[in-house]
Amino acid sequence: MISPPTILRAALLRFIPGALAFLGCGLYFTASRKGIALGPDQMGGFTNLTLFMALGFVTSITAMRRALSPSAGVGGRRSVIAGFASPAVLLALEIMHGSPVSHWLNYAFAFVAGTVVSVAMFIPGSVRVAERVARVDDRPRSIPALSLPERN
């Protein structure tokens, strides 16, 4: 079972930097190409989106923590990848919605994006899946050679 301090440490030190890396790269390339300057309101919005994605991450990992084995890698690179992928899922959700939305709906989308990506990243690390894989791995690795009659 994964402990709550491990989950919080993974969110703060792995997930949020991954999300900020995606958002930072996107903002840098968009601003450099279009000449856009971001003000405090936009930076506050990005901060809130990042925090709601992290809240989705923490909520989903906390809900799955009893099923996760310690080898699930919650404190490792899977959390960074989940953080990096969450803004992409958020962008996809907003594109599918189509019209401009309120801030609260954006925050709900951010929560859903953090939750969906973290569940997708860590379900393979659950105990039940690991037990099934262990059962499959117990099978022999090679097929015994067949003895064919020799030709003369």
Structural class: mainly alpha
Q: Helix and strand succession?
A: HHHHH
Helical stretch count?
Answer: 5
Counted up, domains total 1
Distance between the termini: 63 Å
How many β strands by DSSP? 0
Overall, the morphology is extended
> How would a textbook summarize the main sheet?
none
Q: What ranges have pLDDT less than 50 throughout 5 or more consecutive residues?
A: none
Strand content: under 5%
Task: Report mean pLDDT, rounded to a whole number.
Answer: 83
Task: Please give the share of residues in helix.
Answer: over 70%
Cα-atom radius of gyration: 22 Å
Compile the SSE list and pairings.
Layout: H1 4-34, H2 40-64, H3 77-97, H4 103-122, H5 127-137
Helix pairs in contact: 1-2, 1-3, 2-3, 2-4, 3-4
List keywords for this structure.
152 residues, mainly alpha
Tell me about this structure:
The chain is an all-alpha fold and 152 residues long. The protein has one domain (4-133). Helix content is 71%, strand content 0%. The protein contains five helices and no strands. It has helices spanning 4-34, 40-64, 77-97, 103-122, 127-137. α1 packs across α3 and α2 (40-64) crosses α3. The longest helix has 31 residues, at 4-34. It is extended, with a radius of gyration of 22 Å. The model has no long low-confidence stretch (mean pLDDT 83).
